[in-house]
Amino acid sequence: MNDRVNDDYLQLSSDIAQLRIPPHSIESESSVLGGLMMDNGAWDRVGDMLADTDFYRAEHKIVFAAISTLINASKPADVVTVFAELQKSGKADDVGGLGYLNTLAQFVPVAGNVRRYAEVVRERAILRKLISAADEIATTAFNTQGKGVDAVLDAAMAKVMQISPDGHGDDWESMSDGVVQMLDRITDQAAGEAPPDFTPTGLVDLDKRLDGGMRAGELYVIGARPGMGKSALALSIGVHVGLHEGLNVGMFSMEMPKAQVMNRAMSMLSHIHLSRIKRGERLKDYDWPALTSAVEKLRQVNFHVSDKSGLNINQLRTRARALRRRHGKLGCLIVDYLGLMDGTDPKMPRVYQLEEVTKGLKSLAKELQCPILLLAQVNRKVEERPDQMPILADLRDSGSIEQDADVVIFVHRPYKAKPDLADEWKYYAKVQVAKSRDGEPGFVDLMYVGENTQFLNWPEETPIPTSQVRVARASKGGDL
Prior knowledge:
DNAb Helicase, Chain A; 19 helices; about 50% helix; DNA-binding; EC 5.6.2.3; DNA replication; DNA_helicase_N/primase_C
């Protein structure tokens, strides 16, 4: 009888001990580390959710930190390079040496599931932190050390809030600190000692309307009817940012293949008619020096193009993060165009899909700290009006475009809309800043050179077209 009681007691003690083992998943931790060493691109799927402190095993904390250091430095992270990094910090023996790293690299059940493995690691880490916080709260509740109930409750709530995925860090800033920093920046700007907080578009009048240019963290929507030049405007800005500002530029070209984007860029810089660029046999002897010069310039431009179609916001975000990680801070990101993007759930109504995209792009602009140019089509109804310059209500399918955008820019070319206009209208383009969250809306006169699909500043010596058609429209209250 006593033996049976002892056996039951031992079993109960074992069960209790098992229950007190902190939640963890060695398999998921090993899968994450192995997946990262086998495919560094997986970092873009897990790097935003994991820290080395989320791992349970001490060895795994060290290995993840080494992988993170290498990938964030744009260096390959495989078994050999991670081992070398650990040797450099004197921690190679702490993780079991090259043999254990090789074992981890082979421990990848399904490489495509690495984000789910990371989610499991994160979930277990949160549970461990919750257990630790609960123990501290219980200890404080048993021994308040003279603190009032309100103080004990407040401390308990603070501990729990710090565990929340949204509770890390303190991004609150007091007005007293903020205005002092702003005053210092304004003082430096006035003295010409501060770097600009904007990126010029290269179009002088548009930059004036935007108070200098595009700003980091803001979403710029360029809207127009097909063929009006919204892609050309975005590409003109992007090439300027890469060539003259020396900044990295990314373009999601879901409508045009990469080769077409390259052709347009070469035509812009060489001033050779696009049709001759596309058909090499049409090039003249005098074209070649300009063409080779343009190619040499473009080789120095940090301009990167992806022509993958039908991306949803999660896929686009992953690719944008990878571009940022590999090439550094972005001067701007171009998305061409909204209508070709999908929602994460294709079964949802289109209006909800677009709302998800615009909100996601606005969030991405803040995360990457770069301006995002989002191209969008406007409704066909604009063609039925005497004045065909679009208005905010013409943005197709979703009011979230207007709501989420910091700046909305419309492009209209009267000659395209009405080819029987006089030749003086051929190169004229009217651009409207229809919404500016921190500025004044207004109109800008630009030149559009269709032969090179390029937007330029309107020449100062050339008068703005003033034909009777334009005068008649202006007399009715329109701008064109």
